[in-house]
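User: Good morning. I'm curious how 6-O-phosphono-beta-D-glucopyranose would be positioned relative to this chain. Could you predict the structure with it bound?
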Amino acid sequence: MSMETSQQTYTFPKGFWWGSAASATQTEGSVPGDGKGPNIWDYWFEQEPTRFFNGVGPGETSQFYRKYKEDIRLMKEIGHNSFRLSISWSRLLPEGKGAINEEAVAFYNDVINELIANDIEPFVNLYHFDMPMQLQKIGGWVNRQVVDDYVNYATLCFQLFGDRIKKWFTHNEPIVPVEGGYMYSFHYPNEVDFQKAVQAGFHEILSNAKAIQAYKQLKQGGKIGIILNLTPSYPRSQNPQDVEAAEIADAFFNRSFLDPAVKGNFPGKLVTILKKEGFMPHMEEGDLALIKENTIDLLGINYYQPRRVKAKEHMPHPSAPFMPNHYFDSFDMPGRKMNVYRGWEIYEKGIYDILKKIQADYDNIECFISENGMGVEGEERFMDEEGVIHDDYRIEFISEHLKWVHQAIQEGSNVKGYHLWTFMDNWSWTNAYKNRYGFVSVDLQEDGKRTIKKSGHWFQSVSEKNGF
Ligand code: BG6
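Assistant: Good morning! Here's the predicted structure, ligand included:
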């Protein structure tokens, strides 16, 4: 199939969701007296500031907490009809449970009302990598108690904001805290312990099902889903061992969360390996039935890069810590198109392959592209005299992905929208402000001054014409 169609116009279905996504810790910042409790990022930055690019921590970020009215005006200006934010658990409940921070309730109410007043539908995510520190002290997702604390927090959010919020998400990329916190050392508590990784992942899945159950009991009439980073696994070749390696990687990194969230069960390949290696999680009676019965209504798909895989070439040391890649090797395909700043491959057709898989194997569940985007370092060099960044590479990145989304729609995919990561340049965890992703630039030297980039203006016209 050729995508050489520069003259063609791409029109999307009526009501397509155009917008962007962001998260609390990456945008809000904190100001003295706001009542926010610390989460793992505040704590980790205090302990190990050198882990963060240029020593920039989560305290300041992009000041959404103070500037949200201006930001929402800009969202409107660049054509948003929807926007995903997350609620900061430790802003709402500074200890993770117990006393409520009323300032946070007022803040989120204002943000939600302001979005709605501007005809931008708020999509709300409950957990974006930000465990309250008090709960991390008792083990975070590894401790089953935290599942109940999370469900209480989620229920509180439904009660406080559910009259206006009709699209909820239980988690954003739940595999990432597992990878970062217990395997590859890029989130606190930066341990290397596969048993804990599996337990944390299982508890997140359980918390998803329990939050869905709690939401349905309230009968608020909205939808509830989850946001997953799906990285299609491509084998190096059709050799059966390469194919098997790719299927195992798919089971570990995609189906581990996708299958329980959508179908209520776990992929056999994954369970077989966990049993064989002795890493099954601790479960209680009734857990699997609860997961089976409480599946999502709506799937958010974050897509950045594919995963290329080949059969294992060298076995790790027999007593090295277990990792999924004991079953496969990564394949650095020569000539890949790369985003060199982030070190991620750009493969536009991957977005189509995911959508086709969801259509074929997951009952074509209602879904949307909840994140896609391109982080670039040193964008100032593309700035004109007015301070506008000419990010033509981002326009190309988005439109090349949208063409494939459009193609999937022509073939019957139930994909309902496209959100860019992200609205404005924000704090990217340990990468801090290294790579910029936004439609809107943020000048950290000038109190976070906002300027719409060329891509933001372009997006406005896409949204207005419902295509390009
Ligand atoms: C997604 C996350 O993985 O990708 C975001 O949901 C994140 O929180 C984004 O910022 C970009 O990745 P990174 O690592 O460059 O910030």
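The mean pLDDT is 97. The chain has one domain: 3-465.
Let me know if you'd like a different ligand tried.
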